[in-house]
Amino acid sequence: MKNQLLLYFQAFSIWFKSLIRESANNIISIIFIGFLYLALWHFPQTVDLLLILNQTETFLLEVPLYFSLLSISAFIIWNIPKYFYYHNYKDISIRNLIGFIPNQHYKFQDRSESASYSYTTRIHMRKTLPRILGILLLAISALSILNAMELFGLENTYTKFLDPTSMLLLVIFLLLLLSEPRLYTLLKNFLNKIANTTIVFFCISIGLMILIISLGTLNTQAEKDLGKLFLANCALTLLFFSLSFNSYKFLKNFPKKLFYGTILVSGFLILISFFIFNFYPKWATGVNPLSIMVLSLLSLFMICFILILVGKKIRLPLLSLITILCIFSSRFFTDNSDHYQLEIKKTTVDRASLDTYIYHWLKSRKDDILNTDNKFPIIMVSSEGGGSRAGLWSFLTHSYLYEKSEGAYFDRNLLSLTGASGGSVGNAMFFAEARNASISNRKADFKIQSDIENANLSYKASIIYKDNYLSAALLSLLGRDLFKEVTSLFNFKNRGQLLEDQWIRAHGQFFSDEKGNLILSKEFLSFYKGVISKNSKTSEAKIPPLLLINTTHTQTGNYNIISPVRYAHLRSLEGMNDFIDTVQSSYPNGSIDLSTAMRINASFPFVTPVGEVRKKDGMNKTTSDQYADAGYYDNIGGRVSKGIEEVLIEVLRDSFPELIEKVKIKHVLITNSEERKITKTSSQLTAPLTTLQNVRYGHTREIMERLGDDYIVELKPTEIIPSTDLEDSVSKRKKEEKIKPVLPLGRYLSKIAIRSMEARLDTIKSDLDLILK
């Protein structure tokens, strides 16, 4: 018994060493799979995209493209490592690469039954590990859909009985069993006993393909269809499993040159597409972000393949050398690069102090306040972050209140707009047009008059947020910006500037100034030009609301406010740094564009780069201040609103005591519905990380409670009818035909999700009306 156990341990040791040794030959595949796993399981913006794959109007194009890229990735992972063996790469040249059959190493294998277990395991591992990794890639993709449904609390048959993490571990365990030669032989002999195995193999393959296609045609864009998407991805995984482990049957009737040539050509075509997209990133906006992500990762994989193959031909570890060189060069260029520097603009606007501004804001409305029958509402808005859904929800809320009050909401009652990330972007998009209209002495129009293409949408904000704001950023992150980071060659717009351009273009479809200029590209303080002069006199027009855009200073973690007023002397906002004051200490009369302010407020980790402002210290040494997403510190901007309220109360008490009883301060909180379950007790090992993960959410809720819950405008998924047929009334349709779309966190919204958000706006109109009373 003891000897038997020892033999088992020896066999396991041999198997494990073979696994590690062969993993080194598949290292780029393992890294590729690791990145895909992190993106699809742990990165919020891409996890959410899995849930809206079935919502898009071009479902029959986007899902097949995504599945095709996954399939190509799996086939490349399976077959690329064959090119790295000596008996293959020694005969490869540029001329014969396409169509070369990389099976030469099989000719020199000892197939005798007397071969040692160590040798048999090594050879078997060489054959099976690439197949296993290809299957694992597709399994991760399939189970990530299940994981995303679980994260969003979407229950169906699959989520009730299957735990995604446990299933992934089980899949890995079962696949590793196939890498053990004796177990594999037992399973193979068992299956070979079945009559007509070749016919069964082809029938199963055809059946799986029919299943994948049929599941796609049954899509109704409802949440329940996510189960079908999961099932289709599982079928794709099984189809690849069947093909890869029965390749000898498949390739018996299929030209091998064509098979390997097709795989390489597919990989090189994807690489060429990647280069083209990087030269013309605007084209990437027409492709689903998930497909762009897989395409980009696969292109980096192909670059690594080329470097490894060339390195083996010239007998140099080329990939390792270039990787080390890139690490050192990126560190060197980071300190000297101006790639992420914000563009500083000149401003002619002098900022008044906050208390002075509020004084004149009240003074310009004094008669209105005194003549109001009921209490005059003074509105301060705080908008929660949350990607495009938060931006659109904020924009929709403001649009409704503006239209309902015929402009009085902005011109009469609104004192301040603040927020974080996406919510603040929505604030800025609304403010830009409302202020532009006010300057032009006209009423802004935020509703769609007539648009056949967008017949089911009511607001211009919805069309602006239909654009794909994520694909170009993902492409640039893994492409041109990565190239710039390690080489510092050429000059082009970084992914943050590309995002600004997209916002400006989309907003400019509907809104521009009298001269036709796009208003998001205007200098931030220009919206307050002539409001308060140097001698603190106001213009005849009413003072506009304060647009306060927040950001977080990367090096210190301090909160910064991009503000049209000065506030450093006020105790209520003590400790919050003045961004423009900091900029002007190095650049006199310096400022930034409104779009740039929006971007550094909404710098989602990695997807959007932190903005940099170069400065010189007292020793004449050049450094850069870096500014990131406001949501790191306060994901709703509530602390700013609370400070504004305290200053308002002081000004009322000191200068307008007669107005105190005539006004009602209203904190409007534009939020996302997010019910988070209390996590189970953490171990001492994980507790610190759990705390860091939850502290932002807890801090935001704490601030919201301080502002009160009287005027919370909460976004919730709302049922809609998916059909675009407007002739049938809602009452005639069955309840089962309604769907409640998922609202993703990222910068990519489907039309179905947008319609759900407009439907939510309709359901809370009575609550919104109370804000104006």
From TrEMBL:
Q: Which domain of life is it from?
A: Bacteria
Q: Which residues cross the membrane?
A: 24-43, 63-80, 132-149, 161-178, 199-218, 230-251, 258-280, 292-309, 316-333
Q: Keyword Nuclease on this protein? A: no
Keyword annotations: Membrane, Transmembrane, Transmembrane helix
Name of the protein in its database record: Patatin-like phospholipase
